[in-house]
Amino acid sequence: MTTVNQAVELVLGSVSPLSSEKVGVAEALGRVLYDDVRSGRNVPAFANSAMDGFAVRWDNVDGASSDAPVSLEVRAEVAAGRVSRKRVLPGTAIRIMTGAPVPAGADAIVRVEYTETRGDRVTVFRSDARGSHIRPSGEDIGKGQVVLEPGRVLAAADIGLMASIGKATVRVWRRPVVAIVATGDELIGIEDKPARGKVVNSNGYTLSSAVREIGAVPRSFGIVGDSRRRLASTFGKALACDAVITSGGVSMGDYDYVKDALADAGVRMLFWKVAQRPGHPMAFGRMGRRPVFGLPGNPVSSLVSFILYVRPALLRMMGHEDLFMPVVRAKMAHDVKTAPGLKEFVRCRLEQENGRFLASSTGTQSSGVLRSLSLAQALVVAREDQTLLRKGSYAPAILLDHRARLGQKEMGF
Ligand code: AMP
Ligand code: MG
Predict the structure, then answer these.
(1) Residue range 52-69: average pLDDT?
(2) Residue nearest to atom 23 of ligand 1 (CA)
(3) CATH code at 34?
(4) Ligand 1, residues 185, 203, 304, 371: which to mutate, most atoms within 8 A of Cβ?
(5) In the predicted structure, residue 402 carries a pLDDT above the cut 80
(6) Interstrand relation of 92-96 and 108-111 (parallel, antiparallel or unpaired)
(7) Which of 74, 120, 216, 237 is most enclosed, with most CB atoms within 10 A?
(8) Based on the domain organization, do 289 and 367 belong to the same domain?
(9) Domain limits for position 125
(10) Domain end residue (candidates: 123, 158, 173)
């Protein structure tokens, strides 16, 4: 049987980043940068004032104090967005607002708090230094400078940075379109009457949300009954997408046709059982560059296998370098028995205790109980050779939904 680590290696060895595409910067949030972003401009484009005050010649105001104030003639005023046609001549000043271009002749700004204006004259009774409060051209970014490097996951500040240099479009890695196929005669739609023996196709919703959460594009192929012919036909269509995820029909039951139907559709299987719990039946294959994940039908197994295998594969296809969820070390709050020979992922709540994580099971670990995963903040990992996570011992804990969990109710500062 394939171990979890071998399975991850086989999956990641089968995928590589897709092609790139150009998108408007407003649509680039969360996308992975394909190549360098270089600035064609200086930012700021012109030297400008960082203060409301007066543009002056430093030699005129050097040493000004309340005892020895300096009086200057105010020749003009320049607001943000305007350009002064006048120069600052010896013995004069130009009133200037924050963001306005520094007029020719000036080499310092005196802030308005250090002055008193009467008529067309200003008295300066304090000054800072030569060049003070002038933001030089190119202070933020110089022309030709690389501002963002390939592989960068674009954040809000990066989007603004690109806008500031007038970069309207950016080349990023393409996002995979991911086919999602639910299989099982028992499955019904969310709006259907829950007749006896029927189960809502919750995996369709879980998996498309998980795909969307990492920035890939889910495409639902609905529910397919347990018929090898119908499955193969749907898989044939689904394989036009960049990746395929199926759920259900991969175990040893009489109606588990997914593996055969995938083979019928031309998929080459690489493994179909992993030494793990939950999610022991799990098929993986490929057709050309397209990975195909045959996830188990049990809702917990399905999502845990998504997290372990599908997520890193899709991230790699999107050009990401950080493929795995964050892992912390957590202390067990109580004993948890685990299965020998399998890597077990125990759904746990986490508490912080003196800066340490304390893990306690969310209750029944049955792979059908989706609520145990909904309540969980981490999957605590027990190795194949362990049969017990002993109270007080430490184990690796995969942090689930870490972005949301990093929030807190109190401001904290
Ligand atoms: P299977 O892997 O097909 O043997 O299914 C295992 C269990 O998961 C069964 O109890 C199914 O009813 C359930 N199941 C399969 N597919 C889904 C699905 N799409 N949504 C919710 N439960 C499912
Ligand atoms: Mg089934």
Answers:
(1) 97
(2) 297
(3) 3.90.105.10
(4) 203
(5) no
(6) unpaired
(7) 216
(8) no
(9) 48-135
(10) 173
Nearest to 216 by CA among 183, 245, 249: 245
For residues 168 and 180, membership in a common domain is answered with no
Q: Are 173 and 319 a contacting pair, CB within 8 Å?
A: yes
171-187 burial, b for 16+ CB within 10 Å, e for fewer?
bbbbbbebbbbbbbebb
Regarding the beta carbon of 199 and ligand 1, being less than 6 Å apart is answered yes
For residues 197 and 218, membership in a common domain is answered with yes
Query: Between the CA of residue 297 and those of 188, 202, 302, what are the distances in Å?
Result: 14, 10, 6
Residues whose CB is less than 8 angstroms from the CB of residue 54 and which lie 6 or more positions away in sequence, other chains included: 72, 74, 93, 94, 95, 96, 109, 110, 112, 115, 122, 124
Using a 6 Å cutoff on CB, does residue 93 contact ligand 1? no
E-assigned strand segments in 112-264:
115-118, 121-124, 134-135, 146-148, 169-173, 177-183, 187-188, 199-200, 217-224, 243-247
Verify that 25 and 163 share a domain, yes or no.
yes
Q: Which of 142, 111, 117 is nearest to 45 (CA)?
A: 142
pTM: 0.93
Q: Is the CB of 297 under 6 A from ligand 1?
A: yes
> In the prediction, which pLDDT does 364 show?
85
Quick: pLDDT tens for 75-127: 999 999 999 999 999 999 999 999 999 999 999 999 999 999 999 999 999 99
Of 310, 253, 251, nearest in space to 281 by CA: 251
**Residue 256: C-alpha distances to residues 147, 179, 218, 262 (Å):** 52, 19, 24, 12
DSSP per-residue letters across 297-314: SSHHHHHHHIIIIIHHHH
Pairing of strands 378-382, 394-399: antiparallel
The alpha carbon of residue 96 and the mean position of all alpha carbons in its chain are separated, in whole angstroms, by: 42
Single-letter code of the amino acid located at 224: V
Query: Do residues 129 and 265 share a domain?
Result: no
Is any atom of ligand 1 closer than 6 Å to the C-beta of 208?
no
